[in-house]
Design a protein that fits this description.
The structure is a single chain. By secondary structure, the chain is mainly α. It has a single domain, classed as Growth Hormone, Chain: A, CATH 1.20.1250. Helices cover 76% and strands 0% of the residues. It has helices at residues 25-44, 50-57, 67-90, 92-111, 116-144, 147-177, 182-202, 217-229, 231-260, 269-294, 296-320, 327-353, 360-384, 391-411. The longest helix is centred in the middle third of the chain and has 31 residues, at 147-177. The protein is globular.
Length: 423
């Protein structure tokens, strides 16, 4: 069975023919960012609780605590393959609300966990629920915008989204101060409730009527095949997955690097983590303001090249100090790399979806699944290689950045910095 896919029209034609009755630009970006923030806070505010969870469940190997991040990402990645096709049939609103209900169930199971294995299972369910926000946030943006305008919206969204990691560990620390790691999951429930109320009240259905698709395995597979045959889509998604692996490797090992395993910052761990996240937020704001003028390819290609070079510097500094460089030097280089990666990731995401507007839900779903699974696998390799030094993170950044650059060069047939009017 094949499906006919209408060519992507200009940005102004991708919007619904009826007048837009939803929130204004700033509120729209804020709601989309909150949808994505559920994912971030569900990872980052749990990091300070690792020692308490280790003690509660007598976890023998500290590296096993990283599984709380990676199993969440597995559930998060696998579920994305479902949300997109379903939302292309029934619409974005009901699917997001259903995913939030699953997320709440995962939070409740985590709070009642009698064992570490139970907690891991609850984290998988949380990831399955949070995946709806990731898929539908991108699909809703693509429903409304295209080209550089879409890239600008995604960058503003990512800027707000990246503020969350700056404060999430501090929120987790505050919850711990109330007496138990269980309260960390209470903060997740509060965020999910807030999103449910705000989205239900203010965001109308954004799926264009003529883009509704039958829910059938054949139609879904046809859309996936179209995505796989689109060189720009699969190439930039692969590069995005590799860079996501860098982020996941860092996040998975951050608590050990900054707190229990290397620098022993204790209560200052959220501050160090927030400073690095702040570099990402700053770069994303710059990208949102500049991408309309320079284009997505110029910004992202420059970013991934510089990221790879600084990754090599990171390895060199690590080797020079036997894997334990001075904290301020390590933070400066790490923050610079997080700054540079933020010029690539939002633009890679927008470039991948640009030619797939007619199947935005399914495309976002499949590409999100692929990106997350690839990123979780690469991040797991980096995190599990933690040996009490900063070298695994540095080597991971340099290697994955170099691979991402190679993939981008293949995608563009060796012609970097060039592209169409939108890029």
């Amino acid at each position: 069975m094949t499906i006919a896919v209408r060519p992507v029209p200009p940005a102004h034609e991708t919007r619904a023919p009826r007048p837009w009755s939803g929130p204004g630009f700033i509120e729209f970006v804020a709601i989309i960012a909150l949808m994505m923030a559920v994912t971030a806070i569900s990872i980052d505010n749990l990091l300070p609780a690792f020692p308490a969870i280790e003690a509660r469940f007598a976890v023998a190997d500290p590296n096993r605590l990283q599984l709380l991040v990676y199993v969440y990402m597995i559930g998060f990645g696998v579920a994305q393959i479902v949300y997109g096709p379903v939302s292309d049939t029934v619409g974005r609103r009901p699917v997001l609300l259903a995913s939030l209900a699953i997320y709440v169930v995962g939070c409740g199971l985590a709070m009642a966990a009698p064992s570490f294995g139970w907690l891991l299972a609850a984290r998988i369910i949380q990831g399955i629920g949070a995946a709806g926000g990731r898929v539908l946030s991108v699909a809703i943006v693509r429903d409304r915008f295209a080209g550089r305008e879409m890239a600008s919206v995604m960058s503003f969204t990512m800027m707000v989204f990246l503020i969350v990691p700056m404060i999430a560990p501090a929120i987790g620390g505050m919850m711990l101060a109330l007496g138990s790691w269980v309260y960390v999951f209470v903060s997740m429930l509060v965020l999910a409730f807030w999103l449910t109320v705000w989205f239900s009240w203010r965001m109308p259905e954004t799926l264009h009527p003529e883009y509704r698709r039958p829910l059938s395995p054949a139609a879904t597979w046809a859309a996936i095949r179209l995505t796989l045959r689109t060189r720009v889509a699969i190439g930039y998604t692969t590069a995005l997955g590799l860079l996501t692996g860098c982020i996941m490797g860092y996040v998975g090992s951050a608590q050990q690097v900054f707190d229990t395993g290397l620098y022993h910052l204790g209560p200052l761990f959220p501050l160090a983590f927030g400073l690095v996240a702040g570099a990402m937020g700053t770069a994303t704001l710059i990208n949102a303001r500049v991408v309309r003028r320079l284009g997505m390819r110029m910004m992202s290609h420059s970013g991934v090249i510089a990221f790879t070079l600084v990754g090599l510097l990171q390895v060199g500094v690590g080797l020079a100090y036997n894997g334990h460089p001075p904290l301020l030097l390590f933070l400066a280089i790490l923050a610079l790399n997080q700054f540079l990666i933020s010029f690539a990731m939002p633009n890679f995401n927008a470039l991948a979806l640009e030619p797939l507007g007619a199947i935005a839900g399914t495309a976002s779903s499949f590409l999100g699944f692929y990106t997350t699974i690839l990123g979780a696998f690469c991040g797991f390799l980096i995190g599990q290689a933690f040996d009490g030094t900063v070298l695994p993170v540095g080597i991971g950044y340099a290697a994955l950045g170099g691979l991402a650059l190679i993939v981008v060069a293949w995608t563009e047939r060796g012609r970097l910095f060039r592209g169409g009017a939108a890029g």
